[in-house]
Amino acid sequence: MGNHLIRGARRAVWLHYLISLAGLLIWINVDAQVGSDVALTRSDLIPIDPKAYLLGQFRPDTTSDFARLPKDLANGRSVYLRTEVAKALERMIRDAREEGVHLEVVSATRSFAQQRAIWNAKFTGERLSGGRNLAKEYPDSLERCLAILKYSSAPGTSRHHWGTDIDFNSTSPAYWRTGEGLLALRWLERHANDYGFFMAYTPDRDRGYRYEPWHWSYQTIARSLLRNHYHQLISPEDINGFHGADIFRRFEWRDWYVDGVSEALR
Ligand SMILES: [Zn+2]
């Protein structure tokens, strides 16, 4: 009887150890999985009012945590990115150029106002989209919005607001089928991940914008912004103030466009 009790007690002690060990392992595992996101608290990640930041309602040239990219990397123009992103990007472009591959930034951080200017000009037909006047081609506003959304984001929903995303070389699909374009694309596909950059609009997605070989995103910061902040902070009422906004808000825009990025960035 006594032996039985002692054996039972020993078993209980062992069981207790095993459960603690399992708990510890689960804890370590969970911590490892979310490691990169855990380090990025809202105050680390977002230097200003978080809503204004995510909607692009700020000036990157006067915001801490933003830096200007050396002008020779952007064809002489002043473009801004998150400081960490700018550093990684400079290393990547210089390494590519050393290997004879042409890479330059044609678009980086864009404000809400800049995105609105692009959107509105496409909506009114002042700016052509792939050589076409969408206002003439689509008199119906809903169809016109969908046509713009093949390649352009609505203001407030663009990843370019965040300072984590860039367009390389050309936003014309035809360029990326030329010799120079293909060389750049092959290089990016082989090496960009090593510098932290991932293609946002890959050809394998089932929703969202068309394939954009030119648009790349700095994974750690951008993924955390999307997962942990954008949806929590931005509501449909924030997406406003441009032509066709009332129509756009009726689309499944979060699911389809904001979340319609490559697996690596979700
Ligand atoms: Zn882009």
Q: What's the short story on this structure?
A:
The chain is of the alpha+beta class and 266 residues long. The chain is 47% helix and 8% strand. Bound molecules: zinc ion.
Describe this structure in words.
By secondary structure, this protein is an alpha+beta fold. The chain has helices spanning 2-33, 35-38, 42-45, 50-54, 83-98, 112-124, 134-137, 141-148, 179-191, 219-233, 245-248, 253-258, and strands at 66-68, 80-82, 105-107, 165-168, 197-199, 215-218. The protein has 2 domains: 1-33; 40-265, Muramoyl-pentapeptide Carboxypeptidase, domain 2 (2-Layer Sandwich). The protein has 12 helices and 6 strands. The chain is globular and about 85 Å long. The structure holds zinc ion. Zinc ion (ZN) binds next to β4.
Q: Architecture of the largest domain, according to CATH?
A: 2-Layer Sandwich
Number of helices: 12
In N-to-C order, the SSE pattern is HHHHEEHEHHHEHEEHHH
- Helix content percent band: 40-55%
Q: Would you identify the regions where 5 or more consecutive residues have pLDDT less than 50?
A: 24-39
Structural class: alpha+beta
* Gross morphology: globular
**Rg estimate, integer Å:** 23 Å
| Counted beta strands | 6
| Strand numbers in spatial order across the main sheet | 3-4-6-5
End-to-end Cα distance: 59 Å
Number of domains: 2
Biggest sheet details: 4 strands, antiparallel
* CATH class annotation of the largest domain: Alpha Beta
- Beta percentage is 5-15%
* Cofactors, ions, other ligands: zinc ion
**CATH level 3 topology of the largest domain:** Muramoyl-pentapeptide Carboxypeptidase, domain 2
Q: pLDDT average, as an integer?
A: 89
